[in-house]
Protein 1
Amino acid sequence: MTDHPSDPILSVENLSIHYRGTPRPAVRNVSFTLGRERLGIVGESGSGKSTVGRALLRLLPTAEITADRMSFKGIDLLRASEKDMLHVRGAQMSMILQDPKFSLNPIQRCGDQITEAYLTHNKCPKREARARTLDMLEAVQIRDPERVYGLYPHEVSGGMGQRIMIAMMLLTNPSLVIADEPTSALDVTVRLQVLGILDALVRDKGIGLIMISHDLNLVRNFCDRVLIMYAGQVVESLKASELDNAQHPYSRGLLAAQPRIGGGRGTLPVLQRRPEWSEPVEASS
Ligand SMILES: Nc1ncnc2c1ncn2[C@@H]1O[C@H](COP(=O)(O)OP(=O)(O)OP(=O)(O)O)[C@@H](O)[C@H]1O
């Protein structure tokens, strides 16, 4: 079990993932550890970020997953039975996806969905689960939890839907939350509110967070460490505060392609890609 804040919650060594029927692995030799911290995974579309997140939850029925190690709080995720994974998913490890519209059940009231998810993993009277749901809705800064409890997903805004998802994912007290582009469907103000909520909850509860994103500015400000992925591999791993000093030419290209306030109106450079970056590299942690 993980007791000390600096103990890794998650340890991944040489993770490779190959979707069956595709010519090459989507992810190759990815290694990293995660403590009670916020780890960003960035890279262009198709670089394998979401595939890594889904592999941790073993949500890839059409892929071969191999690794020297993929352990979460002492559980061997490669060899855990499906029954064991049912206890891990949603209870100890949760995933927040981009758009709540596709994650919430459209024909069930939002509050009932959270209560039901809680009761799947915890035995308690329904009344108590409902009260916990209302408390959690309040914790994610929903002002009128009783009213929102009774709304259907189509009746809530994108930002509120995402708070509802966060409430659902955090109510079971997970040790690890994987947030896959959790705010990219939100406008800037709501995005900052949702990130603030996630940040406070992660800090207060000592959760490990993996933030999957395209947005370098977001991970620079929000995360402690960053993995930069290209063509299924981690090309660079560094502290978020040192992101601007990234060395790999792909990372430098990503940084240079970011528009900056006050950066002038010139054309942004086109991101260069070289074949040798797709060659196998030494695993980094
Ligand atoms: N179910 C699947 N079957 C076959 N190939 C897949 C499947 N899902 C993803 N891939 C491929 O795996 C590679 C990595 O995809 P992945 O979605 O992990 O990238 P990503 O970095 O998360 O991209 P995005 O930012 O667009 O979500 C891509 O080449 C993608 O086409």
Protein 2
Amino acid sequence: MIEATRPSLIASDVDVDPVVDVIVIGAGATGENVADRVVQGGLTATIVERELVGGECTYWACVPTKALLRDAAALRAARALPAAGKAASGILDPATVFARRNRFAEHWHDSGQVGWLRSAGITLVRGQGRITGPRTVTVTDTGDGTTTTLRARHAVVIATGSSAHMPPIAGLADVQPWTNREAVATNKVPDRLAIIGGGAVGAEMATAFNAFGSQVSLISRTRLLPRAEPFASEHVTEELQSAGVALHLNVDAIEARRTVSGTLEITLSDGSTVAADDVLVATGRTANTKDIGLDRIGLEPGSWLTVDDTLAVLDRNGKPIGDDTAADPGKAWLFAAGDVNHRAPLTHHGKYQARALGDAIAARATGAELGLDPWGRHAVTADELALTQVIFTAPEVATVGFTAQDAAAAGRDTRVVDYDLGKVVGAALHADQYRGRARMVIDADRNIVIGFTAVGLDVAELLHAATIAIAGEVPLDRLWHAVPAYPTINEVWLRLLETDGRDHAPATRDRTLVATADSATDEAVA
Ligand SMILES: Cc1cc2nc3c(=O)[nH]c(=O)nc-3n(C[C@H](O)[C@H](O)[C@H](O)COP(=O)(O)OP(=O)(O)OC[C@H]3O[C@@H](n4cnc5c(N)ncnc54)[C@H](O)[C@@H]3O)c2cc1C
Ligand SMILES: NC(=O)c1ccc[n+]([C@@H]2O[C@H](COP(=O)([O-])OP(=O)(O)OC[C@H]3O[C@@H](n4cnc5c(N)ncnc54)[C@H](O)[C@@H]3O)[C@@H](O)[C@H]2O)c1
């Protein structure tokens, strides 16, 4: 086995000014974008990073996992066509896939990202950042232990992300389990791989290692992809099973041990046992807040940070952590964005929060007005109403907004419309025996789409049309005028509209506009 390339980083910037407008702790995708926006807004920013600039997504998550999955997806697509399938009859070579993965993970070297920080005018300080007082962060160099104390004029932003959660399974620590980091950076294909966890990480890695030829056993205490529409989850379950993955669903892993022969044995709550050579733990994430000085501000180290809609960190009484200065008593100075606030733990949503927060910090500093109303410039409305995700399993699952179940739980009056993607000519042309389904969740009061899920080969690129319909609150009567090109898979939009019918009450206009018009009329009458 060739070990994964060791992380490699370059030194902090020299001549660091200890007083700066904004300090960002954590240079993942979120932190980088917060710093970029505040600098674009005319402020100075220093970013503190203890590992690689670029964070989890670049080196151990989104990017390298998709590189691990992409070749097999292309092969699967080719094999869904008779002539292309014949032409693509060879075997997938994992070593070639790993080499391409290494390139996308930038060989675990962050010089490219550091170069970008410099070009964006952001100062980098290497080390572990800790809050040591109001607007104050002390950075400890992880090599020589020297410290630098920084003070922010305007704000401190925590963007420290998350790490793999280790569940309390007896013996687990002793069998040297893989987390996402080892799985993503591996150069070996285990003969037998056990995966604990049936969320996005478990399902994607089962897809990847199954394609590399591992005998994969996946154990999950829930159904696969428990937050997705059940039909999407069932579809992925069936396809993984028919590809040879052994699924142990709705059971807990309770004990792990190595036998004398070196085989790893995992005992499940139903009494059965899974044998493997390696085990990947994919049971969710834990907040990177254990050692960032939360105790100094009355919060519990290790906890997710609770934020309000401005992303200000809240204290135990639900109040923003406020300033103690006479000039600005109570003014919020501490903010949190990305995985660490647990609102929407996805890279693109962390970056969305970063854009809103960075702009808001710059606006506050210059006394400009804040746009915090829903869908306003500084609001993060999409986290709640238009959260997007693509899970790159075979088949892919693409989701935005509410599932039918979540909409019902939120008390929305809905219509749910489903369509078999296999009946869409564009899909049938795309792959023989195309199997898939799409669902549109409609707010029946307002006649707008509030949720969309598709499962099927290559549905990822369908998602943005749905996202625009939801974020734009496009009335269904207008959506009939968005004509999908023939013969593409996007024609499913027309089929969903036809299935729903055209005779529903016209979309209610935006409630605030209606209210304004009504009150204007009332005033005129008065
Ligand atoms: C296997 C896997 C696959 C994924 N795939 C996708 C995907 O396809 N699409 C998607 O959108 N999301 C995906 N995600 C989720 C995505 O990786 C995260 O949402 C994203 O990385 C969060 O970004 P962040 O900047 O908030 O945190 P992170 O990326 O975790 O960055 C935080 C940074 O802060 C640093 N840090 C932490 N504490 C300190 C400290 N005290 N001082 C200094 N620095 C500190 C860390 O070293 C790190 O660099 C995946 C996750 C996993 C595990
Ligand atoms: N393509 C993507 O967007 C993508 C891909 C991978 C990860 N991510 C993100 O990364 C984060 C972490 O993903 P994840 O899959 O690790 O977490 P998750 O919370 O999505 O899923 C955890 C799974 O582990 C199971 N589980 C928990 N404890 C268990 C136990 N003791 N025994 C058996 N099963 C157990 C749960 O039932 C669940 O199925 C998520 O926010 C996810 O959205 C996103």
